[in-house]
Amino acid sequence: MNKQFVNELADINTNFAQWYTDVILKTDMVDYGPVKGTMVIKPYGYAVWENIQQYLDKEFKKRGVQNAYFPLLIPESYLKREAEHVEGFAPEVAVVTYAGGEELSEKLIIRPTSETIICEMYAKWIKSYRDLPMVMNQWCNVMRWEKTTRPFLRTSEFLWQEGHTVQSCPEDAEKDVQEMLKVYVGCLRNLMAIPTLQGRKTEKEKFAGAVATYGMEAIMKDGKCLQAGTTHNLGQNFAKASNIRFLNKNGELEYGYSTSWGVSTRLIGALVMVHGDERGLRMPPNIAPIQAVIVPIANHKPGVNEKCEEVFNLLKKADVRVKLDNTDNTPGWKFNEYEMKGVPVRLEIGPRDIENNVLTAVRRDTHEKLTLNLGNIVEEIQSLLKDVQDNMLKQAEDNLKASLIETDDFDELVKSVNDGKVALAYHCGDEKCEEEIKQKTTIKTRVIYAYDDSHKCIYCNKPSKYRVYFGKQY
Length: 474
Ligand SMILES: [Zn+2]
Description:
Blueprint: H1 16-26, E1 30-32, E2 39-41, H2 43-62, E3 66-67, E4 73-75, H3 76-79, H4 83-89, E5 94-99, E6 102-110, H5 115-125, E7 134-143, E8 157-167, H6 170-191, E9 197-200, E10 212-219, E11 225-233, H7 237-242, E12 245-247, E13 253-255, E14 257-264, H8 266-275, E15 292-296, H9 304-317, E16 322-324, H10 331-340, E17 345-349, H11 351-355, E18 358-363, E19 369-373, H12 377-403, E20 404-406, H13 410-418, E21 422-427, H14 431-441, E22 444-451, E23 466-471
Parallel strand pairs: 3-7, 15-16, 15-17, 20-21
Antiparallel strand pairs: 1-2, 4-6, 5-6, 7-8, 8-14, 9-10, 10-11, 11-14, 12-13, 17-18, 18-19, 21-23, 22-23
Bound molecules: zinc ion (ZN).
Zinc ion (ZN) binds near residues 428, 433, 457 and 459.
């Protein structure tokens, strides 16, 4: 492949979809798998996922969550126990009917999510209030046979974490889903520099089988929403379907109250589409697999390679994720390459820099060039990375604010959402009304902003139930 041309990307402003595909393929994050709809997550993409995992795993464990692992295959009969759940997932399940050289007597579902099998096991393990709360999480893959797929955003197999809790009262189950939503929002904000809109989903958009679903929505560069994570209060629905009962303190048998919550490799797609620009990816330092790259200039000159290695070792020792590229590619090629990969800070070290005991740093977020003193280079770089992180969050917040409009006029809502906005409007809460809007315009509700019955529904004019965000989605 001619490396001179690898960084030719489609125009981000006129062809965002192609730009996205170009970026994720050309930065070596992902490749297509041989089975349609599957993806191979390559090391540069997987490193992003690992950073998400590390952040969340730490936050989960602070809150008493334990990791476990449940099987990939689920007996078909389990899925059928919760009526809404099976209706929600049946169209996209993959089923194993033949194994070990013969037809199976019971079909096996490849997990689209694990509520049914985890609840089955919980029912076996939970006997009394002393066994509660039961709080487990698994990091795993799931499979949903989607018709239209795009790497990270929608793939038939993806990686995620799914947390499942059982509590002895509805209040504690509700606390779990609120708390975990906060953890997710914090992950996006602190690690990925992505601000979100968060709140309860409407009855129509909630998870199949849940009492209440909460979601967080990130807004992409083109104004479309991406559901970045959800938490579900399942009430006693799954406990009744799976017979999760415990002896309460009065010696009576009671059904448990369960929750589930998850985020997936979709988040990598969000990262690309929130921060990317015409030159490629832009990685916020806290999640960047490479936070700083050192590019030697005129490294045939004496002392250049040595100085580069010295700086590399200092930064590495200080836990900066640093890479030294001393391959024989030209500096110009390297500049393009790491710019496209979104490395937050590029460090150039040449003979003249060494003479002056400095290096040249270039920020990926602003393209600003800085001269930094080699005498306290570790502190300089650490503070620079923090600046880049803060600035990228600020930019993303400004974009989010610029995407929002408030309206009481349905035509304006449709027009502005089609123009890449997210619209805040009053709605009656009626599922049929919401469905009609969706059928007519492909616009869906995202999350509820606030309950408010003082206005009229933007579509049917009946009294409002809440104010809700409307948008187009990935
Ligand atoms: Zn209505």
